[in-house]
């Protein structure tokens, strides 16, 4: 399992979306699925899928949050034909944010919100090496505009095997964006690629809990470390969730959490669910004790 994975919050479409996404990406597959009962959202579906070797967890937990383009997923394509194929599937029932076509940075590129509202950027990479197929991309808007560089440096200071990669910056004359802010930049956390960008244009959205990153921790010490480093809003702390100083949501979870909630032992799953719903930061020992009925 990768250290950091993506979590997607749906109203009730997690299973439908999982089937849709694995049908689009080559070798996509469902890794696991389960149902949690008696949560604040009632019974919720959890589906974990693999897309191009990257893990995504999809949750159906009610209409509390909506996807926004503040986080999108850049799909690196080796050919323009691959761009066309992905665009055709992802745009069905969706909305184009940047129409597919030729741009200064790519022979063929498009940005689309799919029928579930999730945003994808599909780009032909030309002769550039593709190290990671899908790259989560964070767009800093509104009050957070201009803070992309600060955020990247902060995340790189928290996570290991991290570095800041190539950056493109706005020039004078590209107003409303301020010269020197980040047009697009790459950064790596725990060996995984991410991207960030500032946008000073008027947007009616920002980060929310619909998209969060999960940090998988093998020990309580690891959970304590990431919780202390990332959490900046005590009011947002609940069930392993937190918000950082930029308003972005993270989940700090034990690597064994999925196993604790898997299987056909409904009583065990109910005990673990009841235990974690009472927690802010996860306590591995208490979760394990709940699983064992202690």
Secondary-structure arrangement, i.e. CATH architecture of the largest domain: Roll
Q: Please indicate the count of domains.
A: 2
What spatial form do the alpha-carbon principal axes imply?
A: globular
Q: Could you list the spans in which at least 5 consecutive residues all have pLDDT below 50?
A: none
- CATH class of the largest domain, anyone? Alpha Beta
Q: Please report which band the strand proportion falls in: under 5%, 5-15%, 15-25%, 25-35%, 35-45% or over 45%.
A: 35-45%
**Given the structure, what is the number of helices?**
7
Largest sheet: 8 strands, mixed
- The largest sheet has its strands arranged as 6-7-8-5-9-12-11-10
CATH fold title of the largest domain = 2,3-Dihydroxybiphenyl 1,2-Dioxygenase, domain 1
Work out the helicity level: 10-25%
What does this entry show, briefly?
This protein has 294 residues and is α+β, with helices and mostly antiparallel strands. 23% of the residues lie in helices and 37% in strands.
Give a written overview of the molecule.
The chain has 294 residues and is of the alpha+beta class. It folds into 2 domains: 4-63 and 209-291, 2,3-Dihydroxybiphenyl 1,2-Dioxygenase, domain 1 (Roll); 71-198, Signal recognition particle alu RNA binding heterodimer, srp9/1. The protein is built from 7 helices and 15 strands. The protein has helices at residues 14-24, 80-90, 148-158, 220-230, 257-260, 266-277, 284-291, and strands spanning 4-10, 29-39, 42-51, 54-60, 71-77, 95-103, 106-113, 119-124, 134-140, 163-169, 182-189, 192-198, 211-217, 241-243, 249-254. The strands form 2 sheets. It has an 8-stranded mixed beta sheet, covered by helices on one side. A hairpin with a 2-residue loop joins strand 11 and strand 12 (192-198). Helix 6 (266-277) packs antiparallel against helix 7 (284-291). It is globular. 37% of the residues are buried. The mean pLDDT is 96.
